[in-house]
Design a protein that fits this description.
about 425 residues; alpha/beta; Spore Coat Polysaccharide Biosynthesis Protein SpsA, Chain A; Rossmann fold; seven-stranded mixed beta sheet; five-stranded parallel beta sheet; 12 helices; 18 strands; about 30% helix; about 20% strand
Length: about 425
C-alpha cells in the first residue's frame, strides 16, 4: 500500500525551533520527524512513499533521495502554491489507484498500521480515520461515531457553544480510497477535516473511525515539540504501540466518578465527584488506560434507551474533557436478571456474563485493548465491583466509599 506524507508546511508556529529547514525535517532525538515516519511505513511493509513537499522542499529531497537507503521507493510532488492537507492529493490521482495511507509530516507517532489496515478492510471502508481521546478536546477537531464505529458527524473547532461530545479527536492519520480523490477540487487549497470528509458524508461514502490509545501527536509548536521530544527519548512513543500490552485502571462509574443517584437515567442527574477528574487526569499522565465498567440496569428497566445512555456518557466525557482528563473506553452492562415488571424490556432481562460481579466487561476490555490484567487495578464502591476485578485476575481491587470527595484521587496516587 502506498503512503502519502504531507510535508509541505512552512512551520510558522515552530519557526523559533528551526526556520532554515522544513517543519518535517526538524530533528527529534537527533533524527528528523519525517524519518520516523518513513521508518514506520517500512516496518509495516509499505515501501512506496510519495512525499508532498513545498517550502524548502529541496532539503527533504537531498536527505531522502530516492529512498533506497531505507529500502524504499520515494517519489515527490512539489506544490507550486500551498494546497492544504487535501489539495495535493487531487493532483496524484494517476498514482493513487488503490487504497492508501496519509500521514502528516509534523506528526510523531508509533502505530500498529497492520491493525488499522485490518479494521479498514473488515469494514469495507471508503475512508478510515485514526481517532483517540486527548486532554484538550474542547479545542480539537472531533468526530461522532455510531455504535458500529461508522462516522456520522464532524465537529471542527471552534465548536458550537454548549456542545456535548464524545472525546474522539481526529488525529490526522487516514486510510483513503481512490473514491475520495474525485471529491477534492483540483488547484484549490482544501483540508480533509474541514472540507473533504463532510462532503464524503453528504455523498454517502462509508467513513469509519479507528479508535486507539496509541501515541500520535503533532509537534507544530515549541511547547508540543518539547513534549514529544521527551516522549521519544523516554520510550513512551514506542511503548504505546498496540503490539505492546498496557496496564489499566478499571473504574465503576456511579459513586466513584459520578455522584451516586438511584437509577440515574437523565443527563441532568450526572455530576462529577470532587477530585474525580484530577484522578483520571493522573491516570492519563501515568500512561495507564482509564476504562469504565458499569452496570446499567436502567436499560433493562426501560428507564432510558441505549441512545439516551450514550448521551449521558457523552456528557461525562465532556465534563472530564473540560478538566483535561479523558476515559479511554466505557463498557456497560444493560441487563438485569430479575423480571416481572410491566414496563421492563424483556430482551435485557437475562442472566449474563457481563453484569458485575461477573468479569465479562473487564475480560472484553482486556482483549480489545491488549491489557495486562496482572498489572491492572479495579476500583469500585460495591463488593460486586471488587469480585469482578478478582474474578478477572487484576493485580488488586480497591473498595472506595460512595461519593467520597478526593477519595479516588488519593487511591490512584497510592496505587500508581
Amino acid at each position: 500500500m502506498k503512503v502519502v506524507i504531507i510535508a509541505g508546511g512552512k512551520g510558522t508556529r515552530i519557526s523559533s525551533i528551526a526556520n532554515e529547514i522544513p517543519k518535517a525535517m526538524i530533528p527529534v532525538n537527533n533524527k528528523p520527524v519525517l524519518e520516523y515516519q518513513v521508518e514506520l511505513a517500512k516496518r509495516y511493509g509499505h515501501t512506496e512513499i510519495i512525499l508532498v513537499i513545498g517550502h524548502l522542499g529541496e532539503k527533504i529531497e537531498d536527505y531522502f533521495g530516492d529512498g533506497s537507503k531505507w529500502g524504499l521507493n520515494i517519489k515527490y510532488f512539489k506544490e507550486v502554491v500551498p494546497l492544504g492537507t487535501a489539495g495535493a492529493i487531487a493532483e496524484l490521482s494517476d498514482e493513487l489507484t488503490k487504497d492508501f495511507f496519509v500521514f502528516y509530516g509534523d506528526t510523531v507517532m508509533d502505530i500498529a498500521l497492520d491493525q488499522m489496515l485490518d479494521f479498514h478492510k473488515n469494514n469495507n471502508s471508503d475512508s478510515t480515520l485514526f481517532l483517540h481521546p486527548n486532554d484538550h478536546p474542547y479545542d480539537s477537531d472531533l468526530v461522532e461515531l455510531a455504535e458500529d464505529n461508522k462516522i456520522t458527524h464532524f465537529y471542527s473547532k471552534p465548536h458550537p457553544e454548549g456542545l456535548i461530545y464524545r472525546n474522539l479527536v481526529n488525529a490526522a492519520l487516514y486510510i483513503l480510497s481512490p473514491k475520495i480523490i474525485s471529491l477534492i477540487p483540483k488547484g484549490v487549497k482544501s483540508d480533509f477535516a474541514k472540507n473533504i470528509f463532510t462532503i464524503c458524508l453528504e455523498k454517502d461514502l462509508t467513513l469509519y473511525g479507528y479508535v486507539s490509545p496509541e501515541y500520535i501527536k503533532d509537534m507544530g509548536t515549541p511547547d508540543r515539540y518539547e513534549k514529544v521530544s521527551k516522549d521519544v527519548t523516554s520510550g513512551k512513543v514506542s511503548r504505546l504501540n498496540r503490539k505492546n500490552t498496557r496496564s489499566a485502571i478499571f473504574l465503576d462509574r456511579d459513586g466513584v466518578i459520578t455522584r451516586e443517584v438511584d437509577l440515574l437515567h437523565k443527563p441532568e442527574q450526572l455530576e462529577l465527584i470532587e477530585g474525580a477528574a484530577e484522578a483520571i487526569q493522573y491516570i492519563n499522565k501515568k500512561g495507564y488506560l482509564a476504562i469504565i465498567v458499569t452496570n446499567q440496569p436502567v436499560i433493562a428497566r426501560n428507564l432510558c434507551s441505549i441512545e439516551e445512555l450514550n448521551f449521558i456518557h457523552k456528557k461525562l466525557e465532556t465534563l472530564l474533557g473540560d478538566r483535561h482528563a479523558f476515559i479511554d473506553s466505557i463498557y456497560y452492562c444493560p441487563h438485569h436478571p430479575d423480571s416481572g415488571y410491566p414496563e421492563e424490556r424483556k430482551e435485557y432481562k437475562i442472566v449474563c456474563n457481563c453484569r458485575k460481579p461477573e468479569p465479562g466487561m473487564i475480560i472484553r476490555a482486556a482483549k480489545e485493548w491488549n491489557i495486562d490484567l496482572h498489572h491492572s487495578f479495579m476500583i469500585g464502591d460495591r463488593t460486586s465491583d471488587i469480585q469482578a476485578g478478582e474474578y478477572a485476575g487484576v493485580k488488586q481491587s480497591v473498595l472506595i466509599g460512595t461519593n467520597e470527595p478526593q477519595a479516588l484521587f488519593n487511591i490512584i496516587q497510592n496505587l500508581i
